[in-house]
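User: I'm curious whether this sequence folds into something compact or stays loose and floppy. Could you predict its structure so I can see for myself?
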Amino acid sequence: MEFEKLLNELQQVVDKLDNPQTGLDEGIALFNRGIELSKQCMQVLEESKGKVSLLKKELDAAVAVAFDVDQDNQ
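Assistant: Here's the prediction. I'll summarize afterward.
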């Protein structure tokens, strides 16, 4: 599931938990769902962090190669 969708659903859960009309049983179920959504959000963020780190390494390597080529041509 996309991060934005997870975050949107998590916000809906929080809004329902903030509602004083929410009963105890429903509140516990919502709280449990909120924990699940939070874990999923963290997982997506960690995966994205890894992808960004990999892309940065690739960019650094490309820049280093380009810099070496420029130096060799001088």
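Summary: The chain is about 90% helix and 0% strand. Residues 3-72 form one domain.
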